[in-house]
Write a structure and sequence with these properties.
Blueprint: H1 10-16, H2 35-45, H3 65-75, E1 92-98, E2 114-118, E3 121-125, E4 133-136, E5 142-145, E6 156-159, E7 165-168, E8 177-183, E9 191-197, E10 204-212, E11 218-224, E12 231-238, E13 241-242, E14 247-250, E15 267-270, E16 279-282, E17 291-294, E18 301-305, E19 316-326, E20 329-338, E21 348-353, E22 372-377, E23 395-401, E24 407-414, E25 419-426
Antiparallel strand pairs: 1-25, 2-3, 3-4, 4-5, 6-7, 7-8, 8-9, 10-11, 11-12, 12-13, 12-14, 15-16, 16-17, 17-18, 19-20, 20-21, 21-22, 23-24, 24-25
Helix pairs in contact: 2-3
């Protein structure tokens, strides 16, 4: 399926697609790239010598045959892994389908759809207790249902940067526990990795972000709902073990309007695994809400991008965002969900390079920011056959690198557009 709309911002390209240094591929440190570097990478790949960072020529975190080929290409003057970030023009709409293709009975007002990407699949969870399904990432065709085991699919799904699927329950704050279950295989029952008393009297589980590798080091961020919606709960993961100690942080301070309902709920995306690097925050509180950047030290507003300025801000929701690092560049995606798509307020995905956030200056808009990489439209469903949500309107968007580090999957869904889709980017030299 072709992308309906794609705009590339030329001012950013020089930084996004910078060439590698002259010594890329110099695995043995002798200031030249030749057959000895090929042998050095092979020896490290086979475990015969100690691994060094220089042998990870393509920067995907592993040393394998692709690094050997990259050194050979550099040696032969064919370049190599010269791309930093995503490759220009590589955005491909893999699929976009209606949610009713996955579930026979669908009440848009009773679901809270979320998505995750893992391996060859996109996982869809309605958040109403029904078993999440997984679809072919390329075609959108339903393949099967997740092996839930003891997991409760009442909250949301998400994925870490290594393709682990995480299932969260919806903890209503009335004495229950907030739980997370993890699996690396859609056919294997997930294992509980976190059980935390929800002692705050408010909800947890609608949105969860995982930064890093749950089998190694990671950060888990869960967003509160309701009247405490400007707060997040954060847990750290070290060596694959979740620290049960929770940190609760107020995000945005008094500069962010307090919001009360799921329809207006906000979403926080931590920029990196280091909280000091800040957060992105979106919400629908006043109907004319900026996309905020939050200082990671003070947890107050540090900058913002203004709404589109189209005259229809009252019908747009800037609440859904997500971040990840792909091929050495930090990216953030914003899903602006139109509340009334049949009134000409469709949704759109805005992808930003957020290595720098200087352009969050309160002057630039989400559609004119210098860091904007591309804009991708979300299609319309058959709203007469399956009415979209009239209240409690929610969406979800995720950015997940593939296990080999060569592709970046942008997956999205909403109970307003009643769609689920995937746009994929690559960093493969052409």
């Amino acid at each position: 399926m072709k992308l309906k709309r794609l705009f590339m911002v030329g001012a950013l390209l020089a930084t996004m697609f910078a060439t590698a240094s002259a010594l890329t591929g110099d695995a043995n440190g002798d200031n030249q790239v030749d057959i000895s570097d090929v042998n050095a990478v092979i020896n490290m790949m086979l475990g015969k010598t100690e691994m060094v960072a220089e042998c990870d020529v393509n920067g995907d975190g592993i040393i394998d045959i692709s690094d050997v080929n990259a050194v050979i290409n550099i040696m032969l003057g064919k370049g190599g892994n010269e791309i930093v970030g995503i490759r220009e023009g590589s955005a491909t709409q893999l699929f976009e389908i209606e949610l009713k293709a996955l579930y026979a009975e669908l009440d848009a007002n009773a679901i809270h759809p979320t998505v995750a990407a893992m391996g060859d699949y996109v996982v869809v969870c309605l958040g109403d207790g029904r078993t999440p399904v997984y679809v072919n990432k390329t075609t959108g065709e339903k393949v099967g249902e997740i092996a839930l085991g003891e997991a409760e699919a009442t909250g949301s799904v998400t994925s870490d940067e290594k393709g682990n699927l995480v299932i969260a329950n919806f903890a209503d704050g009335q004495g229950g526990n907030f739980c997370l279950w993890k699996t690396a295989d859609v056919t294997a029952e997930p294992v509980k990795i976190l059980e935390a008393p929800n002692a705050w009297g408010i909800t947890l589980g609608d949105y969860v972000q995982i930064i890093g590798d749950l089998d190694g080091d990671a950060v888990i961020v869960a967003t509160f709902g309701g009247l405490y919606a400007q707060h997040i709960a954060r847990w750290t993961v070290t060596g694959g073990v979740v620290n049960p100690e929770v940190q609760v942080v107020e995000v945005g301070g008094t500069n962010i309007a307090q919001i009360a309902s799921r329809d207006n709920n906000f979403n926080v995306a931590q920029r990196t695994s280091n909280p000091a690097d800040g957060y992105f925050l979106g919400q629908y509180a006043s109907g004319n809400d900026p996309f905020y950047f939050i200082d990671g030290t003070t947890n107050d507003v540090a900058g913002s991008l203004l709404p589109l300025g189209t005259g229809a801000e009252w019908g747009m929701k800037y609440a859904n965002c997500y971040t990840c690092t792909f091929n050495k560049v930090n990216y953030t995606v914003l899903f602006t969900m139109g509340f009334w798509p049949n009134w000409g307020l469709p949704g759109a995905l805005y992808l930003f390079n957020t290595d720098t956030v200087d352009y969050f200056d309160g002057v630039n808009t989400v559609a004119s920011a210098p860091g904007l990489v591309g804009t991708y439209a979300v299609g319309d469903a058959d709203f007469e056959a399956t009415p979209y949500a009239g209240d409690g309107r929610v969406a979800d968007v995720k950015l997940t690198p593939t296990a080999d580090g060569k592709y970046l999957d942008l997956v999205y869904t909403s109970n307003t557009h009643l769609m689920v889709g995937c746009v994929e980017f690559d960093c493969i030299a052409q």
